[in-house]
């Protein structure tokens, strides 16, 4: 069953086309809700205060999951951008 | 605690930017010394900035020529893409007073640089941002702007007197009518800055160098300095603040890149730890000061950078561990509190460095915390604070060991005043 990708519209065209994608946090917006780490544990850990620690760039086969994490953030504080 | 800008300012005459110290700050005196503002096309201005390798003097050291190119390539004819020039003289770093000194002594050199850039880029308005806790800067700019004719529009702004208010994005926030605090930059301000327009935002001293280059030409400008780092730079030489956060005196000097530290530091300062780059900077060990030259090429291998040129000497004999504890606490208090890792991490870090000053071996935890906050904020405040603390542990590691053994002789370990 195909995954629904509601966040795709907000992902930059460059990131969708190819090249190294990275997850960037809008730090003043982030309130440590932690949904991103639940949805993408292979790429996002939480620090001792609950804020995301992003581990390296997002490989192609993880991009759909990364978009899901971007969409899920209730603070709109996570973005997938081209590095 | 807080740390205030220096109470008194001494400015020494220098070879270029500070050559007119004795002339007074008027436009007439400036024109008599440097001549009329030359007409400089964009291509020539970029060429001058690149041939002289002019870097931003606010701390980050970004090449000014590249910034000019980026603004130029993103501008358009529609009003929403018309470029803007911003002179940043907010000088949030309290150990620095060189922008304040420059504006008091040679305000028209700074404004000439901004006007040259505005003309070359087709910008119609220049914004100048000073800080409320440096009234001399604001007065100097206002008086100088009032003297200038021409069809360029000048706006002045006053930032809050706090450390992070001078950060580029904080300045743009202030100009947009919002609180002047850092926000996330998704694209460089040279592409989309003030109200989304391509924005040439640089430190006041950077603009003065651009003007000096245009007035004198690359050859005369580059007669000083080194081949890789031509020209001069401003330094602010200070002593540590007292227990109430007051820095008594700052001496602002202009040195050529590659000049020796022995030329400007007093003998006592050559035997004591030296902080280079202000409170976001790095410690230098006394053994490295005899041969120290003011250039990035010389400082890089020592783990330091010129930053905005703020230099604090412990010639007063105070202990670098106690001082770092005091300043880390100050920097933790200066967080805007918007970014989680900075809001939580800096107070935690400050507590561990206070612990170190009280002779608890907290080095492992300090290493964890500096790693945890670095690169995780909208501005460089957590990174700069980490740099200061890490350099204490690495560069002055022998002093830290002695301090922990109670052998550093500083007497501060039991009574550090930090708050």
Features:
heterodimer; A: 83 residues; alpha+beta; Alpha-Beta Plaits; two-stranded antiparallel ribbon; 4 strands; globular; disordered N terminus; B: 419 residues; alpha/beta; Rossmann fold; de novo design (two linked rop proteins); 2 domains; 4-stranded parallel sheet; 15 helices; 38% helix; disordered C terminus
Describe the structure.
The complex is a heterodimer of chains A (83) and B (419). Chain A is of the alpha+beta class and 83 residues long. Chain A has helices at residues 13-17, 35-39, 63-72, and strands at 21-25, 44-46, 52-54, 78-82. Chain A has one domain: Alpha-Beta Plaits (2-Layer Sandwich), CATH 3.30.70.20. Chain A is built from three helices and four strands. Chain A is globular, with a radius of gyration of 12 Å. Chain B folds into two domains: 12-221, Rossmann fold; 320-404, de novo design (two linked rop proteins), CATH 1.20.1440. In chain B, the strands form two sheets. Chain B has a six-stranded mixed sheet with strand order 1-7-6-10-8-9. In chain B, strands 4-3-2-5 form a four-stranded parallel sheet, with helices on both faces. In chain B, helix 2 runs antiparallel to helix 3 (64-74) and helix 12 runs antiparallel to helix 13 (363-373). The termini of chain B are close together.
Topology at a glance:
The complex is a heterodimer of chains A (83) and B (419).
Chain A: H1 13-17, E1 21-25, H2 35-39, E2 44-46, E3 52-54, H3 63-72, E4 78-82
Antiparallel strand pairs in A: 1-4, 2-3
Chain B: E1 8-11, H1 27-34, H2 42-51, H3 64-74, E2 84-88, H4 98-105, H5 107-121, E3 125-131, H6 135-147, E4 153-159, H7 168-175, E5 199-203, H8 204-216, H9 218-221, E6 232-238, E7 249-256, E8 274-276, E9 282-284, H10 296-299, E10 310-313, H11 320-333, H12 340-357, H13 363-373, H14 381-394, H15 397-404
Parallel strand pairs in B: 1-7, 2-3, 2-5, 3-4, 6-10
Antiparallel strand pairs in B: 6-7, 8-9, 8-10
Helix pairs in contact in B: 2-3, 4-6, 5-8, 11-12, 11-14, 12-13, 12-14, 13-14
